[in-house]
Amino acid sequence: MARAPRQPAAAVAVVSDTSGPTARPTPTTDAVPPAPMIEGFFGSIWPEHGLGPARLALFGSVGIGLVAAAVLPDRPIGLGVLFVLLLSGALVLILSRVRSHRWTIAATLLSLALGANVVTRAAEWLAVLALCVVGLLVTTALTSARRLVALLAGPVAWVLAGLRGLPLLRRTLAALSSNRLVWPVARTVVVSVIALVVFGALFASADPVVGNWAANLVPDLGWDSLVLRVFVLVVVGGVLLAACYLSINPPPLDNVVRLAEPRRVSRAWEWIVPVGVVVLTFLVFVIAQASVMWGGHDYVRRTTGLTYADYVHQGFGQLTLATLLTLVTVAVTVRKAPRDTPRQRVWLRLTLGALCVLTLVVVASALFRMSVYQQAFGFTVLRLVVDAFEIWLGVLVVLVLVAGTRLRGSWLPRAALVSAATVLLALGWMNPDAWVAQHNIDRYHATGKLDTAYLSSLGPDATPTIVAGLAPDLARCSLPRQPVLGADLLSWNLGRARAFEARVAGSDGTGTTSLEECPRGGGMPLTRPG
User: Fold this and answer.
1) For residues 223 and 200, what is the distance between their CA atoms, to the nearest angstrom?
2) CB-based contacts of 356, cutoff 8 Å, min separation 6
3) How far apart are the C-alpha atoms of 490 and 39, rounded to whole Å?
4) Coil, strand, or helix at residue 512?
5) Which end of the chain is more exposed for a tag (fewer CB within 10 A), N or C?
6) Which of 236, 235, 243, 242 is nearest to 93 (CA)?
7) If we measure between CA atoms, which residue out of 479, 444, 459 comes closest to residue 381?
8) What are the counts of helices (DSSP H) followed by strands (DSSP E) for the chain?
9) What is the structure's pLDDT at 188?
10) What pLDDT does 315 receive?
11) Measuring CA to CA, which residue among 337, 319, 339 is closest to residue 394?
């Protein structure tokens, strides 16, 4: 009687996949047992459904990490950063299960638009803000999160993916070690690289032209640089590998991370009275603003003893905080207030609608106060960013008003994220450094006051505006002191390139004015000559 052949250790088992209407066999590798501690920790919260070795995720993450280690160190933001971001995004998108979903497509387009800031603007703070929003868009798209708590838990899931993916990484490495082709290829690559380094070094030292090419192509491999590049490789490769696992096996955040069902109050006055007090407080503020508008500057001085500029500056932070607390108040009220009967729903709509409308008046008042203060004391990037944040809060209030018409806001968290990305895109399109420089120059031409110290602290994005708007001597004292041009193509950035062109075009051959020759004074205004 013939004996059935024995299956090898890495035999392929068949697991039933019941995710579709028809059960289909799914291959999985049983050569490496799952890590019991990790599986026990995550349990059914974040299960794995028959995942085979993730070779593309591993090789792609390591390859992009190597590219980042060669490209990113010792270079400012520019084409190199964008290149690494595009490679990383493409790998994650290819592996994603939801890449064809409409929300994923929309998040991808917004991420591309925000990522473009690394080459269009030289302001690094703007690139950092853009990448933070991109990270939130990526996690929301990969996990298909809809609820607010699930959306905010996305970045935490990205971090935990580095731990949850360890069993899959172990199975992938085991599968590679049993492959007879992997190690011959690895040996061939190592020998080829050694040959390239040896003969390349010989020819580079023998011919100056080849040496110049090698200097431009080969990164500095000194000890300090080598440590930094290894660090970049590990960080970029590890973060990207965790994102790949999040893409391959996203956690069901909407089901796992959710608030408990609210315990609503039984009597309407339990929520109407506190919310009504808040509404009355807002109404008093609105009446005060109307009194100031009708009474003018004299009324403010008689009533408060403050100048109008000091008056409008005094309460901007408080008004911004009041707007934030209003959104919290609305969220708590929606969870606690009963809405079983038509009368209860009408009261909820009227009360919260009145609160939101009055909040919009507060937002308008805060923006007006900041505008008057900037006209009096000058424009800064920080004040512009705070204005943008206040505008975003106003947009959120409008979205809450729209959601309140039907008392349904399941779409609200994603809409809030899209509105944040849109406001940040608008801020990048405005070119904040140039916008601030232009408004300070306009104020100088109108009042004769200019803070050259602050202008020189702006980034290269402000350089063309300063060169075009000020006389040469004054422009040289106001130009940003940051370097305006990278060393190579991978460092290219549109903002720095325009700054370099503006400096060359505005040069009159007298050189750059030193800091000692420029009028300073701790930010005191410089009076316009004549």
Assistant:
1) 20
2) 326, 330, 397, 398, 400, 401, 404
3) 43
4) coil
5) N
6) 243
7) 459
8) 23, 4
9) 81
10) 66
11) 319
Residue 27 φ then ψ, to 5°: -70, 140
| pLDDT the model gives residue 515 | 47
Q: Which residues, including other chains, have CB under 8 Å from residue 242's CB and lie 6 or more apart?
A: 158, 159, 161, 162, 165
> CB count, 10 Å around CB of 519?
12
Residues 484/500, Cβ–Cβ less than 8 Å: yes
What is the residue whose two structure tokens read 């009145």?
Answer: 354
Nearest to 230 by CA among 343, 73, 349, 377: 73
Query: What is the C-alpha to C-alpha distance for residues 70 and 79, in angstroms, rounded to an integer?
Result: 13
What does the pLDDT read at residue 314?
Answer: 65
pLDDT at 181: 67
Please give the full DSSP string across 166-187, using - where no structure is assigned: HHHHHHHHHHHHT-TTHHHHHH
Q: Alpha-carbon distance 431 to 384, whole Å?
A: 11
Q: What is the rounded distance in angstroms from the CA atom of residue 322 to the CA atom of residue 335?
A: 20
- Cβ pair 10, 177 in contact under 8 A: no
CA distance 386 to 282: 22
Report the alpha-carbon distance of residue 359 to residue 327 in Å, rounded: 9
Q: Judge contact between 145 and 249, C-beta under 8 A.
A: no
Contacts 24+ apart (CB under 8 A), 261-270: 262/335, 262/336, 263/336, 264/335, 264/336, 264/337, 264/338, 265/336, 265/337, 265/338, 266/338, 268/337, 268/338, 268/344, 268/347
pLDDT given for residue 527 in this prediction:
41
Q: Which long-range contacts (CB under 8 A, 24 or more apart) does 389-394 make?
A: 389/320, 390/320, 390/323, 390/363, 390/366, 391/363, 391/367, 391/423, 392/419, 392/420, 392/423, 393/320, 393/323, 393/324, 393/327, 393/363, 394/323, 394/360, 394/363, 394/364
Q: Strand, coil or helix: what is 15?
A: strand
Integer-rounded Cα radius of gyration of the chain? 30
- pTM, rounded to two decimals: 0.80
Tell me the mean pLDDT per 10 residues along the chain, length 530: 42 38 42 60 78 90 93 89 96 93 95 95 93 95 90 92 90 79 71 77 75 67 74 94 94 75 73 87 85 65 65 71 88 83 86 90 85 83 91 93 83 94 95 94 89 90 92 87 69 89 65 50 40
Tokens of 457: 């602290």
